[in-house]
Write a structure and sequence with these properties.
The complex is a heterodimer. Chain A has nine helices and six strands; from the N terminus they run H-E-H-E-H-H-E-H-H-H-E-H-E-E-H. Chain A is of the alpha/beta class. The chains are: A alpha/beta, B mainly alpha.
């Protein structure tokens, strides 16, 4: 099987590319402060712990070192701070400051994270490209083009392929967002780093995890492939990713029994 | 052709529609997401059903232009030409 080229493979216009370059550099300059603030918030305000932190960081490092192809991070989604927790799980903040391309861009919901000027400024300096899920398809396609462009530039991007927090509390294969498959199709040799993260007290979706919760994280690399073209191909690719996340979830719950 | 395509498009959309009142008054200008309240994630399933029903292939980019029932009909008819 092979991946057919996606229609969204055309690169961005110069102004959009320049905007992302400037945003990246401002984010990089502020990263010593922003990353430390997030780490302090997670560690001391949230009181969160990732039980297998060293193990998962080592596994993520090995996957990164395995190849130079673009790496899209795809994770399950249960709370609104998942992207911060996942970034924490994948590497030390100091390491990310030095290896800034490895610090994932995020694609947060505009209504939740970019509703006012303060939030817009925060997501700007945190390497975010806000999206309005379920919004006008041309706008969504524009965001996906930016994501694909960033990956082609070997920037890491974190995206939730279920398209939102799981309402059932479990990975939902049927809700796989085809746009993620479209991104994968438009980035040659794109690898996917699947991340499964769950707090011990996280039984369903919520705004934030329970204070003091302890997390389990796991990573796994896949390179989705399909012979199908168009939308069908995009759906098949994203479903491969979400199926892997679902398998990781099963492994998590099996391990708890 | 127009009426036949319209009827087939509405029939395909029907199981995904959450606003029955909008479906009862459906026209070419009816917005699929805003008026019919079709879940955006399900729009892909709708378009794949268009592919099967009309034996056409629709590219990712083509879907970006589909906002109303009329847009869907225009897209399908352009592929049938």
């Amino acid at each position: 099987m092979q991946r057919t080229p996606g229609e969204a493979s055309a690169d961005l216009e110069l102004p959009a590319r320049a905007y992302l370059v400037v945003q990246r550099e401002i984010s990089r300059l502020l990263s010593p402060f922003s990353l430390m603030l997030i780490w302090i918030a997670l560690r001391f305000i949230g009181g969160y712990r990732i039980d297998n932190l060293a193990e998962v960081r080592r596994a993520a490092r090995e996957i990164r070192a395995r190849g130079s192809a673009p790496l899209l991070v795809c994770a399950n989604h249960l709370t609104m701070v998942d992207s911060f927790l996942i970034t924490w799980a994948l590497g030390n903040p100091l390491w990310f400051i030095v290896h800034f391309s490895a610090l994932p861009w995020n694609v947060p919901e505009r209504l939740n994270f970019a509703a006012n000027s303060w939030q817009k400024a925060a997501v700007y300096v945190l390497k975010c490209v806000p999206i309005h899920r379920g919004g006008r398809r041309r706008d969504v396609a524009g965001v996906l083009s930016r994501v694909a462009h960033l990956l082609r530039k070997h920037e890491s991007v974190l995206i939730f392929p279920e398209g939102g927090r799981s309402r059932s509390g479990r990975v939902e294969v049927e809700n796989a967002a085809t746009g993620v498959g479209r991104v994968i199709r438009s980035v040659p040799d794109c690898r996917v780093l699947c991340v499964y993260l769950r707090g011990a007290h996280q039984s369903a979706f919520s705004a934030v995890p329970e204070r003091g919760d302890r997390f389990y994280a796991a990573v796994s690399e896949i390179e989705p492939k399909t012979d199908a073209a168009g939308l069908r191909g995009s759906r098949e690719l994203v479903r491969q990713v979400v199926r892997r996340l679902s398998e990781m979830e099963t492994e998590y719950f099996d391990g708890r029994e | 052709m127009g009426t036949e395509v319209f009827e087939k498009v509405v029939k395909i959309l029907t199981p995904y529609v959450k606003n029955q009142a909008a479906l009862d008054n459906v026209s070419a200008s009816t917005h699929i997401l805003d008026d019919l309240k079709v879940n955006s994630a399900r729009l892909v399933d709708v378009v794949l059903e268009f592919e099967d029903a009309f034996d056409i292939e629709i590219a990712d980019d083509d879907v970006d232009s589909v906002e109303t029932v009329g847009n869907a009909i225009e897209l399908i008819e352009s592929k049938l030409e």
